[in-house]
Amino acid sequence: IISGLYIDGSVKEYGNWEFDNSNSFIRSNSGTVKNLIVEGKIVINDTHPGSASGIVAINEGLIVDCTSAVDMDVTLNNSNMAYSYAGISHSLYSGSIVKGCVNKGYIMLRGDNNGADVNGIANANYSDSDFWYSNAIIENCTNYGDLTVSITNGNSRERVAGIGMAPTISNCVNYGKISSTYDAGGIALGLNCSYAVVNGCKNYGEIKGGVGLTNVSLQIYTGGIASSCFSGTLINCINEGNVSGEDILTGGIVGYLSNQIKEYSNNTNRGSVNGQSGTENNAIGFDGRNFLNEN
């Protein structure tokens, strides 16, 4: 157990790799980090704060059975960088596995920013054309921490998810409350590529998207399991948490479901959606499968 960790990320040398990834207990891992418990706090108030996480910054190996009880209080001052904040690891590269990990710390992100991601467990910013992150896995992980993003003057979306963003997320559970000025998902951020899979996950936390939104030109996606699914597979998931957000793009399971989805099946919503009791009818906010051509 590592207790009493305190990182002040407000004063750093800008413009190098060490700065960008130094707000974590371990800067990088390409081997195995196992059975580690870290307790403490990360405080950042800066224009270029860098990303932060409770256990590992950049991960290319295995993180197994680790627990973060690291609280994060981050204020971004007119930042134009897309940083990432996560309970376990803020950057999962290809080959990464995060398994059996737990986050108990809260993450609070406020200020001015353009495009930060906040995740209870981990983040891999993957796409169909980007193979740096193409086979990262998050499995059997649990988030208890409340995740809050309160951003003003944002011109792009700040996204929050109870578990994270990775090509494969399986058998994970979120209990934390999620509140975001922009997109919010109980388990995952948007599924954006053909090989993305969210399978066998459950959400019990309250999910709120579009809280205090001032930039009404942006579409806000909010879902009990995933904020949006533009492609990939979403199966065998259950939402028990209450969900609220922009009416047409808010669902008990997913806020937006594209007609390019590979598979959507065996998902159950029991949480209310914008005050209405949870049913199959409000499990999906906007169902693009009902349209031959969404464009």
The secondary structure category is mainly beta
How far is the N terminus from the C terminus? 52 Å
Average pLDDT number: 85
Tell me the β content: 35-45%
The percent range for helix content is: under 10%
Q: Low-confidence runs (pLDDT<50, min 5 residues)? A: 13-19, 127-132
Number of strands: 37
Q: From the alpha-carbon coordinates, what is the Rg to the nearest angstrom?
A: 17 Å
Shape: globular
List the total number of helices.
1
Largest sheet: 14 strands, parallel
Structure description:
1% of the residues lie in helices and 43% in strands. The chain is built from one helix and 37 strands. The longest helix is centred in the N-terminal third of the chain and has 4 residues.
